[in-house]
User: Fold this.
Amino acid sequence: MTLLSVQNLKFAYGSSDLYKDTSFTVSHGERVGLIGGNGSGKSTLLKIISGELTSDSGKVVFRKGLRIGLVPQFIPTNILSQTIKEMVLDELNVSRPGSNILPYEVQMQLEMAGFNSSEFDTKVINLSGGWLNRLLLVRALCSHPDIFLLDEPSNHMDTESIRFLEEFLQSLPNQAFVIISHDRELLDRCTERTLILRDKNIYDFNSSYSSARKKLLELDEAAEHLRSSQWKEADRLRASSKQLAHWAHVYGSKKLSSRAKNIERRATRIEQSIESKPFEIRRKVELSDSIEEARLILRINELDLKYKISGPSLAKISQMWLKRGDRVALVGPNGCGKSTLLRTIAVSTGEDASVRIHPKVSVGYYEQTLMQFESDFSLLKYLENNCPQERTKLLGALAKAGFGPATWERKVKALSGGEKSRLAFLIFRLNKPDLLILDEPTNHMDVFGIEQLENELLKRDVSVLFVSHDRRFIANVGTRVFVFNNKKVIENY
Ligand SMILES: Nc1ncnc2c1ncn2[C@@H]1O[C@H](COP(=O)(O)OP(=O)(O)OP(=O)(O)O)[C@@H](O)[C@H]1O
Ligand SMILES: [Mg+2]
Assistant:
């Protein structure tokens, strides 16, 4: 049974078309992965299906009474000030107006997702990224949807939360879902169909991620083979037309001359029918060369880590230090205080003796939520405000990072998740910080961007302190690992 059908969809932001007459359907119980490069239009597609945006042409047809459970890529700012209970009730009140007690079933769902009933009055803003995504899943579940639309729900999740998400998806009885993710493992385990959005087209495969990627590669190779044999045939025809034209001239034969022209026309027709190579957005994640002189860059000594000055202690960190060229991974479960530690270091003014950063060292801080980009400034203005450099240099840097002129006047808050990450790294490249403090930098990046970032970090030999749940990224980049657990931070040798 078809749940929804996307028909000949077109949508553009300004002059940038995102889709070419895109069509596909999703049926009852289907488990679909939606993948594609950063900025290719995946989130926009889910927003069109969920009714948040209207397409320019084409339409989405729904089965009558279809209920959609949405988990957005970025948390709507209006719910940050609500408590867990208020947020869930808000969702429920859509279907059962007037109620202000959490139904038993919802309490169970929250508890199964790992929330303790004593935490139901906790403000959403105080949840860590991974817990927030768990909560968004429960909220979506409350409306008993026929289909879930999930936009990068595994971002910010630690290994245990990702396992929860996988179990959640695997145990859905009948509901269909469309999940956007850059987590290859999760996609392979939980999906059975893959839509790849590339070059404004949807490629539809009846298999999970790895097999779909392989099939797309085979299609590309076959198309490349066809293209090259078509070019060869066109070349051959042109050569024979030229030869005939020569003979036509030598013998003064109109017949030969007309045959030569016919053959030339055939060659032109073949050339015009050759499909162009699919265009893949290639954007650069680049860093500057590290210029730090200091050997000991950061030293933490007897730090009592707190979320707020007056708040409870999250951990006591007796000793932690970072030398020039270290790439330190900080790992630990969601909510243990990793982001608080990074923020404490990043905003440290040197007045507190427990966090010492070498005075010559400048810090570049990549905040997990990317909240700093909730800005109404245009991309160019934002860059000018944050990187005091010549305009021509900024324009060149923007272009190199894949931000063409069409994007320069775009509001920063309208950039896609992956584009915001790239903007953060562009600012690092221009401002050349000596120490990078990165809080889950790969969350919104497509696989290509993650690989580029890995290469940059290795090539430039910068000093980095980073939090990540991406096991492959940690293994490829980290030179030392600190484990944050049970209110302690210990180096793992
Ligand atoms: N309100 C807007 N105004 C102008 N451009 C926008 C707006 N919202 C999104 N865009 C642009 O549309 C393109 C597609 O955005 P979208 O968020 O759908 O990408 P995505 O595939 O989800 O990317 P990511 O993997 O980075 O999350 C991007 O180039 C983005 O900058
Ligand atoms: Mg997106």
Q: What stands out?
A: The chain has 14 helices and 20 strands.
